[in-house]
Amino acid sequence: AQTHKTFDNLLVVLNGLGLGLENVVSARAFLTDFHADYQCFNAVYASYFPEGRRPARTCIGTTGLARHARVEIDFIARRP
C-alpha cells in the first residue's frame, strides 16, 4: 500500500511538471524492512513501468525513514 501511495505522490509531482513515468530515467528506493518487503515492493514497482522500459534503479535497505514510512522513492526525470 505504501508503494502505491508513494507512486501516486510521485505522479502528482511529475504531472505538475508536464512529465510522466516515461520521463523517469533513474529511481532510488529505500525500504526499512528490506527482506520482508522487497519481493512485494518489486512487483508493485514493476507494474508501473512497461517491461523493457524501466529506469535505472537502486534499492537500499535502511534502518528508518521519515514519518515511520516503510518505503521511500525518488526519481530523476528528463525533460524531452
Ends apart, CA distance between termini = 31 Å
Q: What is the structural class?
A: alpha+beta
Estimate the helix proportion, in percent: 25-40%
Average pLDDT value?
Answer: 97
CATH class: Alpha Beta
Level-2 CATH architecture: 2-Layer Sandwich
Radius of gyration, Cα only, in angstroms?
Answer: 12 Å
Number-wise, the strands total 3
Characterize the biggest β-sheet.
3 strands, mixed
Shape: globular
Note the main attributes of this structure:
36% helix, 2 helices, 80 residues, 3 strands, 60s Ribosomal Protein L30, Chain: A, 26% strand, alpha+beta
Describe it.
The protein is α+β, with helices and mostly antiparallel strands. The chain has a single domain, classed as 2-Layer Sandwich (60s Ribosomal Protein L30, Chain: A), CATH 3.30.1330. 36% of the residues lie in helices and 26% in strands. Strands 2-1-3 form a 3-stranded mixed beta sheet, with helices on one face.
Topology, pairings included?
Layout: H1 2-16, E1 24-31, H2 34-47, E2 56-61, E3 71-77
Parallel strand pairs: 1-2
Antiparallel strand pairs: 1-3
Would you summarize the structure shown here?
By secondary structure, the protein is an alpha+beta fold. The protein has helices spanning 2-16, 34-47, and strands spanning 24-31, 56-61, 71-77.
